[in-house]
């Protein structure tokens, strides 16, 4: 009888050290909680976007801070049909002439801003709404990153008309004066529905520096900008760039 050689036994791998197992387990738990936290934040913003697609946003962080600083603010929500159509066109002409042509980001404006070294703004009305309604003021990469995530969702859920309606109701037109109705009363003593083309362009001309410009006592710069906005508002009406938020007159 021939003995077959026995195969050498494999050495058993040493058991993982308890400290290593505990560290890996702790790392997984932290990662899981981070993902849950991010998911919760996303769900919270998603719910707000859906709610504000038909409900007026009650107040935002900047308005709260200004109310505390000034001892109160002036704001009065009005629906789209209570705003003079020329006001919507004026703001689009002033702030985002391609509003009807993009889905939240104006890539041509972004490229132009990059070529000029960031000396000019490239934020669309949708980006400004995302910032004004859901976020805080100031420059930071974190805020810009969240804004970039919210912008396409707002475009997906809201209509263009709704985006412009919300913008006109939350924008600051003078220190502590928020929304087109409060601004129309503050500067001209009229309701937003009764704004003339000149008055609407004056209001749009104070953006984005409402604390440094006045619609009732316009500087030479504001006067020149007002003229350009009036011309731009007529142009976007004629060439169809206002069709996404209003009927042709």
TrEMBL record:
The chain crosses the membrane at residues 33-55. It is found in: Cell inner membrane. It catalyses: [GlcNAc-(1->4)-Mur2Ac(oyl-L-Ala-gamma-D-Glu-L-Lys-D-Ala-D-Ala)](n)-di-trans,octa-cis-undecaprenyl diphosphate + beta-D-GlcNAc-(1->4)-Mur2Ac(oyl-L-Ala-gamma-D-Glu-L-Lys-D-Ala-D-Ala)-di-trans,octa-cis-undecaprenyl diphosphate = [GlcNAc-(1->4)-Mur2Ac(oyl-L-Ala-gamma-D-Glu-L-Lys-D-Ala-D-Ala)](n+1)-di-trans,octa-cis-undecaprenyl diphosphate + di-trans,octa-cis-undecaprenyl diphosphate + H(+). InterPro entries: Glyco_trans_51, Lysozyme-like_dom_sf, PBP_transglycosylase, Pep_trsgly. It is a single-pass membrane protein. Its EC number is 2.4.99.28. It comes from the Bacteria. Residues 1-16 have a biased composition (Basic and acidic residues). Pfam families: Transgly. Its main location: membrane. Keywords: Cell inner membrane, Cell membrane, Cell shape, Cell wall biogenesis/degradation, Glycosyltransferase, Membrane, Peptidoglycan synthesis, Transferase, Transmembrane, Transmembrane helix. It is an enzyme of class 2 (transferase). Residues 74-230 form the Glycosyl transferase family domain. Pathway: Cell wall biogenesis; peptidoglycan biosynthesis. Residues 1-23 are annotated as: Disordered. Peptidoglycan polymerase that catalyzes glycan chain elongation from lipid-linked precursors. Belongs to the glycosyltransferase 51 family. This is Biosynthetic peptidoglycan transglycosylase. It comes from Cypionkella sinensis. The gene is mtgA.
């Amino acid at each position: 009888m021939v003995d077959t050689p026995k195969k050498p036994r494999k050495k058993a791998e040493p058991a993982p050290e308890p400290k290593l197992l505990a560290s890996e387990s702790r790392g997984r738990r932290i990662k899981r909680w981070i993902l849950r936290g991010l998911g919760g934040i996303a769900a919270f913003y998603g719910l707000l976007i859906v709610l504000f697609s038909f409900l007026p946003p009650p107040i935002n962080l900047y308005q709260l801070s200004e109310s505390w600083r000034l001892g109160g603010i002036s704001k009065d929500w009005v629906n789209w049909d209570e705003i003079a159509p020329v006001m919507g066109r004026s703001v689009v002409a002033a702030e985002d002439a391609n509003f009807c042509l993009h889905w939240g980001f104006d890539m041509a404006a972004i490229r132009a801003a990059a070529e000029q070294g960031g000396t000019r703004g490239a934020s669309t009305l949708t980006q400004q709404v995302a910032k004004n309604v859901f976020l805080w003021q100031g420059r930071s990469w974190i805020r810009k990153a969240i804004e970039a995530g919210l912008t396409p969702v707002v475009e997906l859920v809201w209509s263009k008309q709704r985006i412009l309606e919300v913008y006109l109701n939350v924008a600051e037109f003078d220190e502590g004066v928020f929304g087109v109705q409060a601004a129309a009363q503050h500067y001209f003593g009229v309701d937003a529905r009764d704004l003339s083309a000149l008055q609407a362009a004056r209001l749009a001309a104070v953006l984005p520096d409402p604390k440094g410009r006045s619609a009732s006592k316009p500087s030479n710069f504001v006067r020149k900008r007002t003229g350009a906005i009036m011309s731009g508002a007529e142009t976007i009406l004629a060439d169809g760039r206002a069709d996404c938020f209003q009927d042709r007159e």
